[in-house]
Protein backbone atom coordinates (compact mmCIF):
# COMPACT_ATOMS: atom_id res chain seq x y z
CA UNK A 1 0.00 0.00 0.00
CA UNK A 2 1.27 3.43 -0.92
CA UNK A 3 2.51 5.40 2.08
CA UNK A 4 0.22 8.16 3.21
CA UNK A 5 -2.96 6.73 1.72
CA UNK A 6 -5.17 4.35 3.63
CA UNK A 7 -7.25 1.70 1.89
CA UNK A 8 -10.20 3.00 -0.10
CA UNK A 9 -13.47 1.56 1.12
CA UNK A 10 -11.97 -0.18 4.17
CA UNK A 11 -14.48 -0.67 6.98
CA UNK A 12 -14.05 1.69 9.92
CA UNK A 13 -15.11 -0.25 13.03
CA UNK A 14 -14.12 1.23 16.37
CA UNK A 15 -12.60 -1.27 18.77
CA UNK A 16 -13.17 -0.82 22.49
CA UNK A 17 -12.11 -3.05 25.39
CA UNK A 18 -15.73 -3.91 26.11
CA UNK A 19 -16.39 -5.04 22.56
CA UNK A 20 -18.99 -2.29 22.21
CA UNK A 21 -18.65 0.52 19.71
CA UNK A 22 -18.35 2.94 22.60
CA UNK A 23 -18.19 1.89 26.23
CA UNK A 24 -16.39 2.21 29.51
CA UNK A 25 -12.98 0.53 29.31
CA UNK A 26 -10.88 -1.43 31.75
CA UNK A 27 -7.49 0.24 31.55
CA UNK A 28 -4.17 -1.37 32.31
CA UNK A 29 -0.88 0.41 32.83
CA UNK A 30 1.93 0.15 30.32
CA UNK A 31 5.05 0.89 32.33
CA UNK A 32 7.60 1.50 29.60
CA UNK A 33 8.04 5.16 28.82
CA UNK A 34 8.38 5.87 25.10
CA UNK A 35 9.41 9.21 23.63
CA UNK A 36 6.71 11.32 21.96
CA UNK A 37 6.27 11.61 18.24
CA UNK A 38 5.25 14.36 15.86
CA UNK A 39 1.87 14.72 14.28
CA UNK A 40 0.59 14.15 10.70
CA UNK A 41 -2.30 12.61 8.05
CA UNK A 42 -4.02 9.79 5.99
CA UNK A 43 -6.42 9.50 3.04
CA UNK A 44 -9.57 7.49 3.32
CA UNK A 45 -12.81 7.26 1.36
CA UNK A 46 -15.81 5.73 3.15
CA UNK A 47 -17.39 2.74 1.35
CA UNK A 48 -20.58 4.69 0.73
CA UNK A 49 -18.68 7.26 -1.29
CA UNK A 50 -17.36 4.79 -3.87
CA UNK A 51 -19.69 6.17 -6.53
CA UNK A 52 -17.87 9.54 -6.42
CA UNK A 53 -14.44 8.16 -7.40
CA UNK A 54 -14.61 9.96 -10.74
CA UNK A 55 -15.11 13.36 -9.11
CA UNK A 56 -12.89 15.57 -7.00
CA UNK A 57 -13.56 15.34 -3.28
CA UNK A 58 -12.38 17.59 -0.49
CA UNK A 59 -9.35 16.04 1.19
CA UNK A 60 -7.23 17.04 4.17
CA UNK A 61 -3.50 16.41 4.25
CA UNK A 62 -1.63 16.35 7.55
CA UNK A 63 2.09 16.90 7.11
CA UNK A 64 4.22 15.01 9.60
CA UNK A 65 6.73 16.77 11.87
CA UNK A 66 6.73 20.27 10.40
CA UNK A 67 5.84 23.78 11.44
CA UNK A 68 4.74 26.17 8.72
CA UNK A 69 7.31 28.92 8.25
CA UNK A 70 10.29 26.85 9.41
CA UNK A 71 12.93 24.94 7.43
CA UNK A 72 11.88 26.72 4.24
CA UNK A 73 8.31 25.42 4.40
CA UNK A 74 6.51 28.72 4.18
CA UNK A 75 2.78 28.68 3.52
CA UNK A 76 3.21 29.74 -0.10
CA UNK A 77 5.78 27.00 -0.71
CA UNK A 78 3.52 24.30 0.70
CA UNK A 79 0.48 25.44 -1.28
CA UNK A 80 2.53 25.64 -4.49
CA UNK A 81 3.77 22.07 -3.98
CA UNK A 82 0.22 20.82 -3.48
CA UNK A 83 -1.06 22.82 -6.45
CA UNK A 84 1.67 21.61 -8.83
CA UNK A 85 1.01 18.01 -7.77
CA UNK A 86 -2.60 18.39 -8.93
CA UNK A 87 -4.55 19.67 -5.91
CA UNK A 88 -7.43 22.02 -6.53
CA UNK A 89 -8.02 25.01 -4.26
CA UNK A 90 -5.37 24.08 -1.62
CA UNK A 91 -5.68 25.96 1.66
CA UNK A 92 -3.35 25.95 4.67
CA UNK A 93 -4.79 25.76 8.19
CA UNK A 94 -2.90 26.65 11.37
CA UNK A 95 0.86 26.24 11.77
CA UNK A 96 1.13 22.46 12.19
CA UNK A 97 1.01 21.54 8.51
CA UNK A 98 -2.66 20.97 7.65
CA UNK A 99 -3.82 21.47 4.06
CA UNK A 100 -7.30 20.99 2.62
CA UNK A 101 -7.66 20.53 -1.13
CA UNK A 102 -9.75 19.01 -3.92
CA UNK A 103 -8.64 15.79 -5.64
CA UNK A 104 -10.15 12.63 -7.09
CA UNK A 105 -9.60 9.68 -4.71
CA UNK A 106 -8.09 7.60 -7.53
CA UNK A 107 -5.30 10.17 -7.88
CA UNK A 108 -4.30 10.19 -4.20
CA UNK A 109 -1.53 7.52 -4.26
CA UNK A 110 0.53 9.23 -6.96
CA UNK A 111 -0.28 12.66 -5.54
CA UNK A 112 1.03 11.75 -2.08
CA UNK A 113 4.25 10.34 -3.54
CA UNK A 114 4.93 13.57 -5.42
CA UNK A 115 4.10 15.82 -2.46
CA UNK A 116 6.24 13.75 -0.07
CA UNK A 117 9.20 13.90 -2.44
CA UNK A 118 8.96 17.65 -2.99
CA UNK A 119 8.46 18.50 0.68
CA UNK A 120 11.44 16.28 1.55
CA UNK A 121 13.51 18.13 -1.05
CA UNK A 122 12.73 21.48 0.58
CA UNK A 123 13.40 20.41 4.18
CA UNK A 124 16.26 17.98 3.58
CA UNK A 125 14.80 15.18 5.70
CA UNK A 126 12.01 12.67 5.16
CA UNK A 127 8.60 14.35 5.18
CA UNK A 128 5.31 12.46 4.88
CA UNK A 129 1.73 13.49 4.27
CA UNK A 130 -1.23 11.55 5.64
CA UNK A 131 -4.56 12.22 3.91
CA UNK A 132 -8.15 11.81 5.04
CA UNK A 133 -11.28 12.78 3.15
CA UNK A 134 -13.19 15.65 4.71
CA UNK A 135 -16.27 13.40 4.74
CA UNK A 136 -14.45 10.81 6.86
CA UNK A 137 -13.40 13.46 9.38
CA UNK A 138 -16.96 14.78 9.64
CA UNK A 139 -18.29 11.31 10.44
CA UNK A 140 -16.19 10.82 13.58
CA UNK A 141 -18.32 10.72 16.76
CA UNK A 142 -15.68 12.47 18.87
CA UNK A 143 -17.98 13.05 21.82
CA UNK A 144 -18.68 9.35 22.25
CA UNK A 145 -15.02 8.36 21.81
CA UNK A 146 -13.47 10.89 24.17
CA UNK A 147 -16.30 10.35 26.62
CA UNK A 148 -14.67 7.03 27.54
CA UNK A 149 -11.55 8.78 28.94
CA UNK A 150 -10.45 7.28 32.28
CA UNK A 151 -9.06 10.58 33.58
CA UNK A 152 -11.26 13.09 35.39
CA UNK A 153 -9.30 15.90 33.78
CA UNK A 154 -7.56 15.74 30.41
CA UNK A 155 -5.26 18.29 28.82
CA UNK A 156 -5.42 17.00 25.28
CA UNK A 157 -7.78 14.97 23.09
CA UNK A 158 -5.74 13.52 20.25
CA UNK A 159 -6.02 11.45 17.10
CA UNK A 160 -3.07 9.58 15.61
CA UNK A 161 -3.06 8.69 11.91
CA UNK A 162 -1.36 5.66 10.38
CA UNK A 163 -0.58 4.86 6.75
CA UNK A 164 -2.59 1.65 7.05
CA UNK A 165 -4.63 -0.06 9.78
CA UNK A 166 -2.02 -1.02 12.39
CA UNK A 167 -1.29 -4.53 13.60
CA UNK A 168 -0.66 -4.45 17.34
CA UNK A 169 -0.19 -8.19 17.62
CA UNK A 170 -1.36 -9.54 20.97
CA UNK A 171 -1.56 -6.08 22.54
CA UNK A 172 -5.11 -4.91 23.22
CA UNK A 173 -4.48 -1.25 22.52
CA UNK A 174 -7.84 0.27 23.57
CA UNK A 175 -7.51 0.67 27.32
CA UNK A 176 -3.74 0.97 27.62
CA UNK A 177 -2.40 3.70 29.87
CA UNK A 178 1.21 4.84 29.67
CA UNK A 179 2.70 6.19 32.92
CA UNK A 180 -0.71 7.57 33.89
CA UNK A 181 -0.22 10.29 31.24
CA UNK A 182 -1.60 8.78 28.03
CA UNK A 183 -4.76 6.69 27.66
CA UNK A 184 -5.50 4.97 24.34
CA UNK A 185 -9.26 4.95 23.90
CA UNK A 186 -10.23 3.51 20.53
CA UNK A 187 -8.90 2.12 17.25
CA UNK A 188 -10.92 3.08 14.16
CA UNK A 189 -9.34 1.60 11.04
CA UNK A 190 -6.06 3.49 10.65
CA UNK A 191 -6.88 6.06 13.36
CA UNK A 192 -6.19 5.78 17.09
CA UNK A 193 -7.84 8.13 19.58
CA UNK A 194 -6.30 9.05 22.92
CA UNK A 195 -6.27 11.56 25.76
CA UNK A 196 -3.28 12.95 27.62
CA UNK A 197 -2.56 14.77 30.86
CA UNK A 198 0.47 16.05 32.76
CA UNK A 199 1.92 13.92 35.55
CA UNK A 200 5.01 14.89 37.56
CA UNK A 201 5.75 17.73 35.16
CA UNK A 202 5.66 15.55 32.03
CA UNK A 203 2.90 15.62 29.42
CA UNK A 204 1.64 12.43 27.81
CA UNK A 205 2.23 11.72 24.12
CA UNK A 206 0.86 8.72 22.18
CA UNK A 207 2.98 8.92 19.02
CA UNK A 208 6.15 7.16 20.09
CA UNK A 209 4.23 4.48 21.97
CA UNK A 210 2.05 3.69 18.94
CA UNK A 211 5.03 3.65 16.59
CA UNK A 212 6.78 1.14 18.82
CA UNK A 213 3.72 -1.09 19.11
CA UNK A 214 2.88 -1.03 15.39
CA UNK A 215 6.22 -0.59 13.60
CA UNK A 216 4.64 2.19 11.52
CA UNK A 217 5.38 5.88 11.33
CA UNK A 218 2.48 8.03 12.50
CA UNK A 219 1.38 11.60 12.86
CA UNK A 220 -0.83 13.03 15.62
CA UNK A 221 -3.16 16.01 15.86
CA UNK A 222 -5.20 17.56 18.63
CA UNK A 223 -8.83 16.83 17.83
CA UNK A 224 -9.50 20.55 18.16
CA UNK A 225 -7.12 21.11 15.23
CA UNK A 226 -9.13 18.66 13.13
CA UNK A 227 -12.33 20.44 14.15
CA UNK A 228 -10.91 23.79 13.06
CA UNK A 229 -9.99 22.39 9.65
CA UNK A 230 -13.51 20.98 9.26
CA UNK A 231 -15.07 24.29 10.30
CA UNK A 232 -12.87 26.26 7.90
CA UNK A 233 -14.16 24.14 5.02
CA UNK A 234 -17.83 24.53 5.92
CA UNK A 235 -17.85 28.01 4.37
CA UNK A 236 -16.31 26.96 1.04
Describe the overall structure.
It is built from 6 helices and 13 strands. It starts with 13 loop residues before the first strand and ends with a helix. It is of the alpha+beta class and 236 residues long.
Query: What is the typical, i.e. mean, pLDDT?
Result: 84
Structural class: alpha+beta
Order of helices and strands: EEEHEEHEHHEEEEEEHEH
What is the number of helical segments per DSSP (H or I, 4+ residues)? 6
Q: What form results from the Cα inertia axes?
A: globular
Q: In angstroms, what separates the terminal alpha carbons?
A: 32 Å
* Rg, nearest Å: 17 Å
- Runs in which pLDDT lies below 50 for 5 or more consecutive residues are 7-53
Q: How much helical structure, as a percent, in the residues?
A: 10-25%
Q: Main sheet?
A: 7 strands, mixed
Total strands? 13
Q: How big a fraction of the residues is strand?
A: 25-35%
Amino acid sequence: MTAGVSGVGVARAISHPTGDRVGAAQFEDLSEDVAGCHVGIIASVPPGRARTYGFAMRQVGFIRAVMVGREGLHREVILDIFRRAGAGDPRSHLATGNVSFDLRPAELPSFVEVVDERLTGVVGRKIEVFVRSLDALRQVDAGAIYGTAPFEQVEGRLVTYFHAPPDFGDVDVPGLIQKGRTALLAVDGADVYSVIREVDGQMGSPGGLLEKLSGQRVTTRAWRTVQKVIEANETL
